[in-house]
Amino acid sequence: MSYEPPITDYDEIVENCTCAFCGCNCDDLDYLVKDGHVVAVRHACRLGASKIMEDLDQRLVVPMIRGDDGELEEVDWDTALDKAAEYIANSVRPVFYGWSETSTECMKEGLDLGQYIGAVLDNQATICHGPSLQAVQNAGYPIQTLGEVKNRADMIVYSGSNAMNSHPRHMARYSVFPRGYFRQRGRFDRTVVTMDPKFSDTAKMSDKWIGFEQNGDYGFYNAIRAVIKGKKLTQEVISGIPREDIYELVDEMKHAEFGVLFFGLGLTHTLSKQRNIDIAIKMVMDLNKESKWGLTPMRGHFNVNGFNIFMAFETGFAFGVDFCRGYARYMLGETNTIDLLVRKEPDVFLVIAADPGAHFPNGANQHLAHIPVIQIDIHWGPSTELADVVLPGSFIGVECAGTSYRMDGVPIYMKKAIDKPETCRDDEWIVREIKERVMKLREEPNVAPKYIPNPAAE
Amino acid sequence: MEYILKNGIVYDPANEVNGEKKDVYFKDGKIVEDVSSAAKVIDVTDKIVMPAGVDTHAHIAGPKLVLGRLYRPEDSRRGVTQKTKVERGESGFSIPSCPTTGYRYSRMGYGTVCEAAMPPLEAKHTHEEIGIIPNIDVNPLTLFGNNWIVMELAKEGDIDGLAAFISAWLKITKGYGVKIVNPCGSEAWGWGMNVHGYNDSAPYFDVSSKEVVRALAKANEKLGLPHSIHIHPNDLGHPGNTPTTLETLDSLKDIVKSTKKSASVRDQTVHCCHMHFHSYSGTNWRNAGSGAPEVAKFMNHCKYATGDVGQVTFDETTTMTADAPMEYDLYRLSGLKWVNADIECETAAGIIPCIYSKKAPVSALQWGIGMELFLLIDNPWQINLTTDHPNAGPFTRYPRIISWLMSAPKRNQMIESHEIHKWAEKRTMVASIDREYDFYDIATITRAANAKIHGFHDRGNLSVGSNADIAVYDINPNDFDPSKNPDAVERAFSRAKYTIKDGQIMVKDGEIVSTKPSHVIWSNVKGMEEQEKDIIDKVMPFFKQYYSVKWENYKVHDHFLSNPIRVDVE
Amino acid sequence: MKTITFDVKKRNQIALEFDEIIPDTIYTWEAEDFDKYAVPVGNSRFPLTDFFDITVEGTADSPADVKMVFNGDCGRVKYIGNKMSAGEIIVNGDADLHAGAEMSGGKMTVMGNVEAHAGREMSGGELEIYGNTKEFTGASYIGEWRGMTGGKITVHGNVGKQCGECLTGGHIHVLGDCDILAGIHMTKGVIEIDGNVNRWPGGQMKNGNIIIHGKLGRLLEGFVEEDIVTDPQIDGEIYKGRYISFKGDIALNGKGHLYLDAEKNRDKLSAWKETDDEYISLGENRKYR
After folding, report:
1. Does C265 reside within a domain?
2. Which of A116, A173, B126, B541 has its Cβ near the most Cβ atoms within 10 Å?
3. How many domains does chain C have?
4. Does ipTM top 0.90?
C-alpha cells in the first residue's frame, strides 16, 4: 500500500452519506465533490471508497441492445425499453433477479411488474444468506442492532466470516473496537473469538481461533450444545477440535455478560448448509439461559436485507417469491433462481443491480446464455456479456436517494450527493417504464374473477 | 361527490344515537348536514349503520411485524389468495402482509388502526409499511418506556426536559403518542433479566418503573397530547400479576389531566392495553386464576383509566411484543422458534408462535378472563375490543368476539358442552354472567370509545364535519335476536355491507371494490421549539457516542410519510 | 373403477403444474373435460392435450374409484398427487417436485426418479418410489415444525439430504443410501434406512426412531450410547438383528432413539479403541493468543 497524499482540491463536502457497499451501511461518510464527481471519500474503508469514487471507465452510460451479429449496439432509451418490455410481455417463466444494490423504492416498482406478469422475484440471498433465512424460518432469530453490540457486548464471535476483509469497518465501527456505554475501554473489554477453518485476518485480530475442519460445523455446534446441557463428550476430537478446548470455550461463552455471534458465508455454504445456522441459532438460544446472547448474519450487499424485509412486508415471504399463478408462493428448490436456471425453466431473465455472470454456478450461467437477459446496472460486468438489453441505471446513495436496510434491519435513507450522468436514468424510473410498457403489451394473466378467501385463514 | 346513506338504523354512541332510523349525508369525504338533490342514494334500508371501526391497539406495521413475516412462511402460506382486478394477492393469517392487513380491516368495516409500538430508531421502517397498507389510517405510538434518555430524565425528575424530549421525538419519529412497554423491563432484558413488580429498576439505571411511568404521564399531560400514555404494565402474562397492574393504575390517580384543547376529547390520563394479560391471580400456571373481578372492580371506581382487553380467540397465532423478556419466558415454555430483536438505547422486542387451544387449560382460562373483563366492567366507554393483534388472536376474529359478547347462550354452550377446557368454568365466573352487549354497546367498544380514547374528534362518530368513515352491516336490528344467532352476527360483522372511508366506497357486499392509500396521523407539538433544541443539544454527545447511526440519518424524512395528517398541539 | 391414462406426448422445459388434477377433483371428468382443460405452465396456461394423450375408461362415483396412470417422462410435471385424499396414481417414469405432497390418503407409485419434496407434509396414504429422490423427502414446509404426520413413504433407491425433516408421524423406509441429516428435528415416527448413511442422522431430534441397517459415516455428539439390543420392537414392529441403541439428541434433551447395525458400526461403540483417523492435527497455529 503506497502513500497517497490527502485530496485538497474539491468544491464541497457532503456529510453523513451512506456507503453503498456491504451490509454495514456506514452512514458517516463524507464525500469530497469536485465538478460533479466524488474525488475522495472520508471515513470509508477501501472497498467502499473505491466503489464510490469509481471513474467512468467501466460505467454503463448508454442503453444497448444485442444485435443480430451478437454485438451490443448503442440505442436510444425508447428502443431499449420497448425491447425489454417485449421480452417480458412474451415470457412464460420470467425471473427478476438482483435488487440488493438498489433502493426499496425501486423494488416496489419491480414487485408491481412481477405481480402483474407473474414472475419470480429473487435476490442475492439465494446465493449467499438464503440458508440463513431458511434456518431463521426453522429455528428463530435472536438478533440485536449493531449499536447494542457496541454498548454491551463483551464477547464477540465471528463464525465463518472474515470481517476484516469482507466488512472492513464492522469491527471498528460496531463490534470490537468502539467504546460503548458499558464497554468504555473498547477492545480491552471484549473477548473476540473466530471460528473458521482458515487462519483468516479476522482470526489474527482475535483472542482465540477455533479452526474446526471444513464441513465439520454441524458436529462442532452440536457438541457445544451438548456441553451447554452438561454432557461429557465421548469423542476426544470433534470436527478437528480437542474436547478440552470445547469445554473451555463453552465456559467462556456461558460467563459472557452479553455475547454476539456474527456468522457469514463460511457457515451457510458448507455441507449441511442451513442446518449449520439452525444449530448455531439454537446454541444462542441455549446460551440465553445462562447469560445474554444474540446473533447477526453478516449480510453482504448494502440492501440485501432490504429486499428480504421489503418482500416480507409486501408479500409475506422473504425471497424467491413466485407469482406465476397469480398468488405468492415460496418453496425451496422450486422458486429460487439457481434451481430454476439449472432446471432450464426461465425464458426471460431480468437482472438488476447484481452480477450473475460473476457469481452464479456454471450450470446456471449456461442457461442464461440461451435466453434473453435484460440488465439494469451501473457497471460493466460479466453479466453485460450475457445481456441482450443493457439499461444503465444510477448509483443509489451517490447519484440517487433511496432507502436501504442495514444487516441488523435498521433503515437508512441514503442521500443523493451528485448528479447522475446525463444519459443514465434512475433504477426506479427504468423499472416503472418497463412496467408501463408491459402493461400495454399484455393483458394481466391469472387474475381471479372475484376474491376467493383461503379456507385456511377463515 | 355527494351521497345519501338512506334509511339505515344508525348507532352513533358519540352522539347518543341508539338505533334510530335516519339518513346519513356525506360530501367530499366529510359528513354534512344536507346534500343537494344530485346526491347519489345508497339504499341501506333497515341495515345497521355505524361509524367505521377504530382499533385501539394492534401491531400491524413495523420491524417486529416484518421479522414475524420473515420467519413464519408457514403462517403467510395460510392466507394466500389469488389477485383480482382490485386487490393484490393476500397472504398470512396471524401476521398478514401489509396489503392484506388493509383489505381485511376494510372488509370488517374498520377505518382507523393504532400501530401500538414504534421504536424510534426503526420508525422509518414502520412508516414505510404504513405507506403500503391500503384503506386504513394509522396512528403509530412511539416507544418511550425503556429509552435510556427517558430513564435518565425520569431519574432527575426533569418533567420539563422530558416533555421537550417527547415533543422532539414525536416530531423525529412522526409518532402520535407515548407508548410504554414493560418499563425498565426491556432494558433489563439487555442483560437477560427482567424487572419484577412496579418498584423494581433496571440494572445500572437507578430508576424504578414507577418513576418512569409517572414522569411520562406528567410530561404527557404537560404537553396535552391528544392521547394519554398508553401503557403495557410490568409482569405481563405472569400468574399473580394483578397487583402490579392495579398498583400501576393506582399510582397515576393524582395525575391532573391537561386542560388544553388538544386533550379535550379524551377523559382518561392512562390507557392500559391488553388488560387480560395483566389480570392473572395465583403464583404459577398450576394454580393460576382470574384477577379480572378485582381489575373490573378497580375500573368501575376509577374515572381516569381506560383499557382494552386483548381477548384470546383460540387460534394459532404469533405473539409479538416489545416485552422481550416475557417472550423468552414463553420460549422456555413452548420451545417453538423464538425471535428477539434488541434495539440500541431504546427498546427490545420478542416474537414467538403461540397456539391457543380450546382444549388447553391455560388458553381456556385466558379466554374466560378476557370475557370477564368485558362483562364485569360496567361502562363500555372504559373498555375496548381488541385482540392485541396478533398476540391473543388475529384482528379478523373481532366479529367472533362480538358474537360472544352479544350471546350469553353461546358462551354457556361453549363452556357446558366442554368445547373449551373446564378451567374456563371452574376458575372464572363467565358462565354465571348473563350480561349481553347490544348493538349500541358494540358500537361503543369498537368505535366511539376507541376514538375518544385516542383523542380523535373527526372519527368514530357521525357528527357533521367528521370524516365520512362509515360501516354498514347487513343486519336488521329490529327483526333480529343476536343472542340466538351468534353465527349470523359473526358473518355480518366479518363482511361489511358497505365500508366507506373518507367518502369513498371501499367495500360493497363484503368485497373490496376500491382501494386508497392510507394516511398516517402524527402529533406535532407547537411552541416547544426552544426547549426541544435545548434537550437535543443536551443529548447530542450521548447520541453521537452510543448510537450506531448519524443524527441526520436518524429522523424520519418526509419521504417516508404517506399522506400525513398532522395533529397540532399548541 | 375409472382409469385415466396420460401418455406423454412431449416434455416441456417449463414445468407443468398438476395440483388441480388429482382424483378428488377429476373423478367426475370425462374425456371432453380434459380436452377443455388448460394446465398452468409458468404464468400462462396451455391445453393439457398439447402435452398428453388422455384416455378415460370406466366411471367413478368417488375419488377412491379413480386410477391415474402416467406413461412416459413426467420429470417436468410438478405436484402430481398433491393433496390427494383417495384413489391411485401410477407414474411409469420420473416425477418432478412435490410428488404426493400433502397427501392424506390413497396410493401413489412412481417407477422412476423423483425430484425434491416428495411426500412433503403427508398425513396419510402410501407413496412408493422405485428410483431415487432428492432433498426433503417426507419433510415439512419451510418454517413449519409439524411435518409429515402419517402415511408411509418407501424409496427403493437413494434419498437426498434432510429426509424426514420435522417428522411428526408416519413411516419412511429407504432401501438405498441416505445423505446427511436424516430425521433432523423429528418429533415422532420411524425412519428406516437399509443402506449406508452419510453423516449426522437425527440432528436435534426430540423423539421418534431412526433405524440404520447400513454403515453410518459420522455420529453426532448429542447421542448417548445406551445398550446393544437384539430384535428391538419399535412402534409395534420387530426389527431383526443386533443394534447399538443411542438416545438423543441430548443437545435439546431429546428422547429419540437411533439404532445402528451393531456389526457394521462397531466403531461407534465407546469400547471401540483405535486412533480416530479423521483427526487432523493443526499444529501450533491451532490456538492463537
Report:
1. yes
2. B126
3. 1
4. yes
